């Protein structure tokens, strides 16, 4: 869907990014991560032609973005930035209508779309449509920023540190909602963040950059357990345990438990499991984090939402260590 071919950007003698090549698949959430100044924003801006590469090509659906009129590009790509970037003298409604206006939609269509989007991001139009951005909290502004990016229903959304300006609690909440929303609307997302926890929480695949160069592209789990070089390995060091918990699912744990001696009591029909429920594709981290300390056993549900097993917290924990051990053994 989006392909970068040997893309470089120089400012004078200084390289911002060098020889970037990777593909972003349709429908995935692709994270660009790395320390400040490594070239994340530059890369994102080249995808929507806010910055012109010094060399190389960027293709969207096989076509060079330079051969597409900028209006087509605008319709295809929504952009959400750090500190929201709402126009201060526009109302919420006018902000959301920016791209539809450029595309010369009629007033009726714009008004309907704006209301629909506001509801989608959890803001009641009657209350919020006519407010100015400075009459909104940070979290509300971020939602409006997202609604604006979604306005013309673009298949691609670029997000640059979208939660960067929020306090930790609001951030957690807005990020959870956005994640849910993105799941339901099936877009191709490129998410820039310097927060690895956020990247592991949100992204299907990641590209880790350092000094403008790709260090590794892969799933969070691949980067964590099969790092291609020392930089990748050391990049995750300080959050390692949490990231491992985020990248291992209860399904992985169930599988390893079932293949070993102390098999958990399997779910049998009519069994009313007590204790918190966990989906097989939930991360071990999210299950443990959300559970009450006194939770003793968990009921695990498969993709069809059928309960498959009941496991105790001790089994879950020891299973986690076994999966982790297995993944580490395969390393190298
Ligand atoms: N307009 C510019 N002029 C000169 N240097 C720039 C410009 N934009 C970015 N850079 C430099 O390019 C490098 C990458 O910047 P950027 O892509 O913003 O990094 P990140 O988003 O990962 O923090 C940095 O060294 C930055 O100083
Ligand atoms: Mg940046």
Automatic annotation (TrEMBL):
GO terms for molecular function: ATP binding. InterPro entries: AAA+_ATPase, ABC_transporter-like_ATP-bd, ABC_transporter-like_CS, P-loop_NTPase. PANTHER family: OSMOPROTECTANT IMPORT ATP-BINDING PROTEIN OSMV. This is ABC transporter ATP-binding protein. Belongs to the ABC transporter superfamily. SUPFAM superfamilies: P-loop containing nucleoside triphosphate hydrolases (SSF52540). Residues 2-236 form the ABC transporter domain. The lineage of its organism: Bacteria, Pseudomonadati, Balneolota, Balneolia, Balneolales. It holds the Pfam family ABC_tran. It comes from Fodinibius salsisoli. Keywords: ATP-binding, Nucleotide-binding, Transport.
